Amino acid sequence: MKNNPTSVTRNLVILHLTVFVWGFTGILGALISVDAIQLVWYRVLIASITLLGYFILSKTNLKVTGSEFIKFVATGGVVAIHWVLFFYAIKASTVSVALVCLSSFTLFTALLEPLVKRQRILLPDVIVGLIIILGIYLIFKFESQYTEGIIFGLLSAFGSSLFATINSTLVQKSDYRIIGFYEIAGAFFWITLYRMADQSLWSEHFDLSVSDWTNLLLLGTICTALAYVAGVAVMRSLSAFRVALVTNLEPVYGILLAFIFFGSKEAMSTGFYAGSILILGAVFLYPIYKKRRGLQ
Fold it and tell me: With contact defined as beta carbons under 8 Å apart, do 200 and 95 qualify?
């Protein structure tokens, strides 16, 4: 199956479409009028129901051990924090700023993964990290009016890196599809607890506009549940290198979509684009370097 050219081509197309859909997530986040916490609560609620329906129809066994359940649900808390911070970043700045900051995921992963797995930090990882830091500095310097959004975006990237690092260990022992379902359901659980504590849940009347409901349904089903299932499915016939390379196009797709939807609102300074090119260039080219040097 892996060596079937037709299968590989088809799955590459599916992966690109999936990453394009992920890039569209930021657009929906900017269009939906509710705050970041309420937005993510609706997102994970809709995604959990959609995935549960998919697993029931596909007769997938969702049974896990007690310890696995606790780990998955706990990791769902990290997922919730990552998504909330990401949408906060969008609402405090722009889609482009949030997506570029999210690309610093590579920097945080280069630092976190060796610590979690007790491995040494590689010199190329340090160099790429320094390039990304320089890019972030340029964005801070030339887009200081978006400081709050940049900080939220970087914190979101850290959360994404932590989530990915944890999952890289969990996936060694459990089905990634099952992990994802319980993590998304776990995110819903933790955000629900938070909304109960701040009492915002008690005033939730589900009386959103038609536009908000439409965008939330797209976000929860197509951009979360369906994209998640598709993203996992293609990994069966594509190498981790190809998946990583294509996935790094998410901010590029997202920024292009932002220009289409929001036009001049997404226009930034020359310094922002210089910083973005440094970050995106490092993120995109590094997997190629690692592949050629036999580092992955």
Answer: no
Residue 2 confidence (pLDDT) above 50? no
Locate tokens 């009386």: which residue? 207
Q: Is 167 in contact with 111 (CB distance < 8 Å)?
A: no
Evaluate whether 191 touches 80 at the Cβ level (below 8 Å).
Answer: yes
Q: Which residues contact 129 (CB under 8 A, 6 or more apart)?
A: 106, 107, 110, 111
How much is the pTM?
0.85
**pLDDT (tens digit, 9 = 90+) per residue, 161-180?**
888 788 777 877 777 788 88
Question: Could you tell me the CA-to-CA distances from 177 to 82, 225, 288 in Å, in that order?
Answer: 19, 11, 28
Inter-CA distances, 64 with 54, 68, 74, Å = 18, 6, 14
CA distance 203 to 214: 21
User: In the chain, count of helices (H) and strands (E)?
Assistant: 13, 0
What is the 8-class DSSP label of residue 104? Answer: T
Angle at 208 between CA 204 and CA 214, to 5 degrees: 130
For residue 210, how far is the Cα from the chain centroid? 26
* From 7-16, 55-64, 233-242, the region with the lowest mean pLDDT: 233-242
Of 1-5, 222-226, 289-293, the range with the highest mean pLDDT is: 222-226
| Alpha carbon distance 184, 48 (integer Å) | 6
